[in-house]
Design goal:
Mean pLDDT: 90
CATH superfamily of the largest domain: Gcn5-related N-acetyltransferase (GNAT)
CATH topology of the largest domain: Aminopeptidase
Low-confidence stretches: 302-314
Number of strands: 14
Order of helices and strands: EHHEEEHEHEEHHEHHEEEHEHEE
Largest sheet: 7 strands, mixed
Distance between the termini: 45 Å
Radius of gyration: 20 Å
Number of domains: 2
CATH class of the largest domain: Alpha Beta
Strand content: 25-35%
Strand order of the largest sheet: 1-2-3-4-5-14-6
Structural class: alpha+beta
Shape: globular
């Protein structure tokens, strides 16, 4: 039986070494993503067959169903890892298309997970916003620059406190304490600012009249592709969100060809917003179960309540 343990900050060097050798395609498989979301999506790690694998559950209790999250980072196959873990595995979540095909051939039930498919854009499209299709985006940015004194600043550890303060203001404006999803996200962002300040993250912030009013932060996902983990703009400034998106690509991601901007979670407004930037392609994801009879087990994607993590009610 493999030693399965909760993912900890001390696992970062090992996880990032594996990820450098076996670059992932799906946005979930970065140490940053796995670590900062571990309170709303409990994550466990194990080393199996010269690979690492991540396990998540439907809840906090030890008797909850276990799922393998994504594909193994290494040369092992999903099925061999599932057999070697020494625990009952209900299925697999957020797996890419090539792995899903292998599981279908093994007669597992495999369903598409459209809500968690990643949107991938050409960096030049986001940075330049050229052509008629981006006319509305350019117009909003023009209005923003005409109305406010905006200045881009590359993300550094010295900006963390200011970005954290802005995140608190954003949460109050959006009433995060009354929305479990926004609450879980606020906890994740807090983890990013509190524990990962020494990471080589990529990002930037926009000052409006000297004050941070927008920020974006990401990192390299694989050679040629960056992933944007979080992007926020204060809602009082019309066009600032579009400007943040554009300047992040233009100034911070100029060394990359693609930007993975993660999933839309099935939220209609978020889906429309992501589509409006015309992705170059999608990274489709799938869920799989060992038997159709177990496919009614809830997937481990529900956020926890705010009160468990010290997020104040707005």
């Amino acid at each position: 039986m493999s030693h399965i343990r909760p993912l900890e900050l001390s696992d970062r060097p090992m996880v990032e070494d594996y990820l450098r050798r076996y670059p992932p395609e799906t946005s979930e498989l970065t140490f940053t993503n796995l670590f900062v979301w571990r309170h709303s999506r409990p994550v466990f790690i194990a080393e199996v067959e010269n690979s690492i694998v991540f396990i998540t559950k439907t809840g906090d209790n030890s008797d909850e169903a276990s799922f393998i999250l994504g594909q193994p980072i290494g040369e092992a196959s999903l099925l061999s890892v599932a057999n070697a873990l020494g625990i009952e595995v209900a299925g697999f979540v957020r797996i890419p298309e090539n792995t899903a095909g292998t599981l279908r051939e093994a007669n597992l039930r495999v369903d598409p997970d459209r809500d968690n498919s990643d949107y991938v854009y050409r960096v030049t499209d986001l940075a330049e916003l050229a052509g008629r299709r981006f006319h509305k985006k350019r117009n909003l940015i023009k209005q923003c620059l005409a109305a406010y004194a905006c200045e881009y600043e590359a993300f550094t550890p010295t900006l963390i406190a200011e970005c954290s303060d802005m995140q608190d203001r954003w949460c109050k404006a959006r009433q995060c304490g009354q929305d479990p999803g926004l609450c879980s996200e606020a906890v994740a962002i807090g983890n990013l600012f509190d524990y990962l300040e020494d990471r080589q993250l990529i990002g930037g912030a926009i000052r409006v009249d000297g004050h941070i009013q927008a920020y974006a932060v990401g990192e390299e996902l694989r050679p040629g592709t960056a992933v944007c983990h979080f992007e926020k703009a204060m809602p009082d400034f019309r066009g600032l969100a579009q400007l943040m998106n554009c300047w992040f690509a233009k100034y911070s991601l100029k060394d990359f060809e693609f930007e993975n901007r993660e999933q839309d979670l099935g939220i209609p407004g978020l889906r429309q917003a992501k589509k409006s930037y015309y992705p170059h392609h999608m990274v489709d994801k799938f869920n799989a179960w060992f038997s159709a009879a177990r496919s009614d087990i809830p997937l481990p994607v529900e956020p926890r309540e705010c009160a468990k993590h010290g997020v104040d009610e707005a």
